[in-house]
TrEMBL record:
<dbReference type="InterPro" id="IPR050151">
    <property type="entry name" value="Class-I_Pyr_Nuc-Dis_Oxidored"/>
</dbReference>
<dbReference type="InterPro" id="IPR012999">
    <property type="entry name" value="Pyr_OxRdtase_I_AS"/>
</dbReference>
<dbReference type="InterPro" id="IPR023753">
    <property type="entry name" value="FAD/NAD-binding_dom"/>
</dbReference>
<keyword id="KW-0285">Flavoprotein</keyword>
<keyword id="KW-0274">FAD</keyword>
<keyword id="KW-0560">Oxidoreductase</keyword>
<dbReference type="Pfam" id="PF02852">
    <property type="entry name" value="Pyr_redox_dim"/>
</dbReference>
<dbReference type="InterPro" id="IPR001100">
    <property type="entry name" value="Pyr_nuc-diS_OxRdtase"/>
</dbReference>
<keyword id="KW-0676">Redox-active center</keyword>
<dbReference type="InterPro" id="IPR006258">
    <property type="entry name" value="Lipoamide_DH"/>
</dbReference>
<keyword id="KW-0520">NAD</keyword>
<dbReference type="Pfam" id="PF07992">
    <property type="entry name" value="Pyr_redox_2"/>
</dbReference>
<dbReference type="InterPro" id="IPR016156">
    <property type="entry name" value="FAD/NAD-linked_Rdtase_dimer_sf"/>
</dbReference>
<feature type="domain" description="FAD/NAD(P)-binding">
    <location>
        <begin position="19"/>
        <end position="330"/>
    </location>
</feature>
<protein>
    <recommendedName>
        <fullName>Dihydrolipoyl dehydrogenase</fullName>
        <ecNumber>1.8.1.4</ecNumber>
    </recommendedName>
</protein>
<feature type="domain" description="Pyridine nucleotide-disulphide oxidoreductase dimerisation">
    <location>
        <begin position="350"/>
        <end position="458"/>
    </location>
</feature>
<comment type="similarity">
    <text>Belongs to the class-I pyridine nucleotide-disulfide oxidoreductase family.</text>
</comment>
Length: 471
């Protein structure tokens, strides 16, 4: 949909209009702020240079997970005989995959447009710049707000001397590929790199992941990282861990990546997946007194910047760069502006999911972090192997549930690896958030046969009465 058509569907601001809440950025944090503030009776405008929904809807969470589902279907077709189903896998039609992905995004985008329209949120199209503690300028036109919310999101990072272009891609370009490469190097073993490596491996690509740290998904519990590495190697994904990028060249034959160890890797494409940085440059923030730390906006416990009534949400605020975190922060800010005194967001209870094959899901602290905080003798852990779970056996997945608790105290971490475990983390979030004891959870009956039952079995084990525990 072109920009003019979008404008016709939205409430458009007249130049010089003043609002109760003026939001810069229409991603997860920005539109959540707008929708909740409008719901609370405040007048709201969102300044957006591209499309509502931001990175998550258009270049991140949704299109990536659509590709991951297509990858899962490809794997199911390959493995069909294992289940007694006669099917054939004839390859990947990227035009068809992209049409499916774009259809998912389009449907959600239309739904978001409808929500914004129903709440009478005003849209200002164009690149905005903060020009005062209560003002944003767009294409030379000034708009004011009693409260201003910065929600400009993030963009892919690169490394010094590593230029994007040609055969060197970020996730933005990778989502728009119109073909399946024969081989690919993924630089970065975090969430984005692991997810693309998983997608491409399922599509038949020869994939190598390069990670400077010793493990994949290094922010996760060490046992989860090691399980991921075993699973990826079993899938024939090559891993180069603990080795840093040094240089890259490209020609008609492909990309040629040199590592600090002296090793040289060759492939059709190089995906640079070394994280995302805050999109705050050139927005006039520092000129108005907003404090930046390595590009991130410094805020207090109420997400206020300390400059007038200027707030910040989402990926530009230091911490987890997750769409659901930005969404929650947007609701918090809107309610704070409306005087509702909302409860501050506890970052330790925000769930994290990597949607690869296998999936990783976690909430709370890792075993290492718990031992650092509470002492080695004050921490207990248990791992429940999915080999003992009926539904996991049916699905053909391996992995485990790992629980971390303070000795004689509450559970402080839930960590899982295996197919579909992202769907289980909601219960883990409640357990950690409500500081539940293993004895509290072990008395609850979990449905059989479900993967959710694995959580119940893990808590039985941690409560001292394991029934199906596997070493």
């Amino acid at each position: 949909m072109d920009q003019h058509a979008r404008t016709e569907e939205m409430f458009v601001a007249e130049p010089g209009t003043s609002f109760d809440v003026l939001v810069l950025g229409g991603g997860s944090g920005g539109y959540a702020t707008a929708l909740r503030a409008a719901q609370l009776g405040l007048t709201v405008a969102v300044v957006e240079a591209d499309r509502l929904g931001g990175t998550c809807l258009h270049q991140g969470c949704i299109p990536t997970k659509a590709l991951l589902h297509a990858a899962e279907v490809a794997e199911s077709a390959r493995d069909s005989e294992r289940f007694g189903v006669r099917a054939t896998f004839d390859g990947i039609d990227m035009a068809g995959v992209n049409a499916y992905k774009d259809g998912v995004v389009s449907g959600l985008y239309k739904g978001l447009q409808g929500l914004v329209r129903s709440r009478k949120v005003t849209i200002v199209e164009g690149y905005g710049r903060l020009v005062g503690p209560d003002a944003i300028e767009v294409d030379g036109v000034r708009y004011t707000g009693t409260h201003v919310v910065l929600a400009t999101g993030s963009e892919p990072r690169t490394l010094p001397g590593l230029e994007i272009g040609g055969r060197v891609l970020t996730s933005d370009q990778a989502l728009r590929l119109d073909h399946v490469p024969g081989s690919a190097i993924v630089l970065g073993g975090g969430v984005i790199g692991v997810e693309f490596a998983s997608i491409w491996a399922s599509f038949g690509v020869d994939v190598t992941v390069v990670e400077a740290l010793p493990h994949l998904v290094p922010a996760e519990d060490a046992s989860v990282s090691k399980a991921m590495e075993r699973a990826f190697r079993k899938r024939k994904i090559s891993l180069s861990l603990g080795d840093r990028f040094s240089a890259v060249t490209q020609d008609d034959d492909g990309v040629h990546v040199t590592l600090e160890s002296g090793a040289t890797l060759h492939a059709d494409l190089l995906l640079v997946a070394v994280g995302r940085g805050p999109r705050t440059a050139g927005l006039g923030l520092e000129e108005q007194g907003v404090t930046l730390d390595r590009g991130f906006v410094t805020v207090d416990e109420n997400l206020r910047t300390g400059v007038g009534n200027v707030y910040a949400t989402g990926d530009i605020v230091p911490g987890l760069q997750l769409a659901h975190r930005g969404f929650a922060q947007g609701i918090f800010v809107a309610e704070h502006i409306a005087g509702l005194s909302p409860t501050s967001i506890d970052e330790t209870t925000i769930p994290r999911v990597t949607y690869s094959d296998p999936e990783v899901a976690s909430v709370g602290v890792t075993e290492e972090a718990a031992r650092t905080s509470f002492g080695d003798d004050a921490v207990e852990t248990v791992e429940y192997n999915l080999a003992g779970n009926g539904k996991s056996k049916i699905l053909g997945t391996t992995g485990f549930v790992k629980l971390v608790r303070r000795k004689d105290g509450p559970v402080v971490g839930v960590h899982m690896v295996g197919a579909r475990v992202g769907e289980l983390i909601g219960e883990g979030q409640l357990i950690v958030g409500w500081e539940a004891y293993p004895e509290d959870v072990s008395t609850h009956v979990h449905a059989h046969p479900t993967q959710n039952e694995a959580l119940g079995e893990a808590f039985l084990a941690l409560a001292g009465k394991p029934l199906h525990a596997h070493d």
